[in-house]
Write a structure and sequence with these properties.
The chain is α+β, with helices and mostly antiparallel strands and 144 residues long. Helix content is 30%, strand content 23%. The protein contains four helices and five strands. The strands form two sheets. A three-stranded antiparallel beta sheet has the order 3-4-5, with no helix packed on it. A hairpin with a 5-residue loop joins strand 4 and strand 5.
Length: 144
């Protein structure tokens, strides 16, 4: 007597009882094809910026009217990311503060700043030059 056939013939599909063939298999975790794209916006940006050329058509709808914009960007000297880097350098050299700040943040790292927090006048939290957190006690130990 085959118990597997007996079990499956008595199994009733219904509310919270999906067919056996569509149930998760042992060792399978989660929904393997949940329909969401695994590519993030950053992933798409990195993909497109690594290309030598981008050609696109974008359609927008405003007040019932459809507007289509087509553009093509081509860099004959390598990936388009190089154009973005050149624009960043150009803006910094021209004296635009936002470009200078971005350029310095990307090349030298963000400027570290000291942060001081006081809690009931008893201790002070700050950071040293390397960014390490320091806690300085200003009262007697045991005072609260």
């Amino acid at each position: 007597m085959n118990t597997t056939n007996d079990e499956s013939s008595q199994y009733k599909v219904g509310n919270k009882k999906p067919p056996r063939h569509s149930q998760f298999q042992p060792g399978q975790s989660g929904n393997p094809h949940n329909g969401s794209s695994k590519t993030t916006v950053t992933g798409w940006l990195k993909h497109w910026m690594s290309q030598d050329e981008i050609t696109a058509s974008i359609q927008t709808k405003k007040d019932g009217k459809t507007k289509s914009v087509e553009f093509s960007i081509k860099n004959g000297q390598g990936p388009l990311m190089a154009l973005v880097a050149l624009q960043l350098i150009k803006g910094a050299v021209e004296g635009d503060l936002a470009f200078i700040r971005e350029f310095m943040d990307r090349t030298e790292g963000k400027a570290k700043q000291e942060v001081a927090v006081t809690q009931k006048g008893r201790r002070r939290v700050t950071r040293d030059e390397e960014g390490n957190v320091l806690v300085v006690w200003e009262g007697k130990e045991g005072d609260s």
